[in-house]
Structures are given as C-alpha cells and as structure tokens.
Write a structure and sequence with these properties.
Elements lengths: L2 E5 L5 E6 L2 H4 L5 H15 L58 H17 L3 E4 L9 H11 L5 E5 L4 H7 L5 E5 L5 H6 L2 E5 H11 L1
Parallel strand pairs: 1-3, 3-6, 4-5, 4-6
Antiparallel strand pairs: 1-2
Helix pairs in contact: 2-3, 4-5
C-alpha cells in the first residue's frame, strides 16, 4: 500500500496518507488507457462539417454545349466537381464521431492512469484548499509552493466555486470533482493535486 505525504497550501508536510492498492497501485494497462483517450477526443469532436455535393449545388440543369462536334470535352453539367462552383466529391456531412466504452474498461483505465501517476511520483495530496474569496493569486502561490506550477489537474471532493473560478484562468491548470475524472485529463497533467478528502472518495468509488 503506497504511502504519500500530505502537505498544506504552503507546501509544509502535515502528515501522510495510505493509498489503496486496488486504485493507486495496480499494473497500468496501456491499451485501455489509449482506448479511453481516443474515446474522449472523439467525443469532443462536433462533427458539424458540411459541404455540398453536385446534387445539392444550384444551377447546372442545362448541358453546357452539345455532345459532339465542338472539339471540347463532353460535359453534362456546369456543377460537376471539375467546374468552378461545382459540387464537392465525397463531400463531408454532419456525423457523430463518439463511441461508447464498456464500464469495466473505463474503471480499469482510470485506475491505470492513477497508478501510473503514483508510480511516477506525480501525485500531490493537499490536506485542504480553502479560499476566503475569489483570488487567483492564492491558487498560483499554492501551486508554486507545492511544486505543481506547470500543467496541473486539481481534484476536489465536491464543487467549490471559489477554487474553481480562481483556478480557471491559470494557464495549464484544470479542476475536476471526483465524479468528473477522466483518463485524458489525468495523463495530460504533469502533476495531479488531490485534496485529501477526495482521495477517500476516489477509493470509495473505484476500489
């Protein structure tokens, strides 16, 4: 069972916490993590691109010139793809790129991502993040003090508007609640900052 230091907002050690082997110390499965990342990125695609085929552009009802005797190539319509203002060959149409992933695969992928971060010593547990007001500088100073001033994912046990708003305009910093965690954000972050209460919730949900 891995043990990790717990620090306060100033980076001072205030204790330790034992992480559950079933969530934070499994053998990472690269294949399912890759599957979840592909699924996440596919689900972000809007799929709203659209272009007109030769059947949909206006005009072109009349044959531009007679079939034979002009010396030019035969043409049936001025809206064929080779003409200016003609239709698009195999035109893209709105589509849904998303696909679902088995629930067991999702759980395994998330536990693999958390275990990978634990093995790489990229998890920082903070005893609590408390803000008296909406103040970005407080969050910036905290991240610098605990050594998480690059790409960081802050995991909260529940919605805290002051923390979320204060961190929202810091470059490279994202916040998420336990029920919003996804493999892409975990792997994309250089450091995973987890509030101590969120650790027990993660273990409760995913163990």
């Amino acid at each position: 069972m891995p043990s990790i230091n717990v620090v306060d907002m100033k980076g001072k050690k205030v204790g330790t916490v034992e992480l559950a082997d079933s969530v934070f110390a499994i053998e990472p499965n690269a294949a399912v993590m890759h599957q979840m990342v592909v699924s996440y990125l596919a689900n972000q695609r809007q799929g709203t691109q659209s272009a007109l085929t030769r059947a949909e552009v206006s005009g072109g009802g009349k044959k531009p010139w007679r079939q034979k005797g002009t010396g030019r190539a035969r043409q049936g319509s001025t809206r064929a793809p080779q003409w200016t203002h003609g239709g698009v060959v195999f035109a893209p149409k709105p589509r849904d790129y998303s696909f679902s992933v088995n629930k067991k695969v999702k759980r395994l992928a998330l536990k693999s991502a958390l275990s990978s971060k634990t093995a790489d010593s990229e998890i920082i547990v903070v005893d609590a993040i408390t803000l008296d007001e909406y103040k970005t500088k407080v969050v910036v100073d905290m991240l610098a003090a605990i050594g998480a001033d690059k790409k960081t994912l802050i995991v909260l046990p529940e919605v805290d508007k002051k923390v979320i708003k204060s961190a929202s305009n810091i470059k490279g910093v994202k916040t998420a609640q336990v029920n919003e965690l996804n493999v892409y954000d975990i792997l994309n972050a250089d450091k995973l900052v987890i509030v101590k209460d969120a650790v027990s919730k993660i273990e409760e949900v995913y163990a």
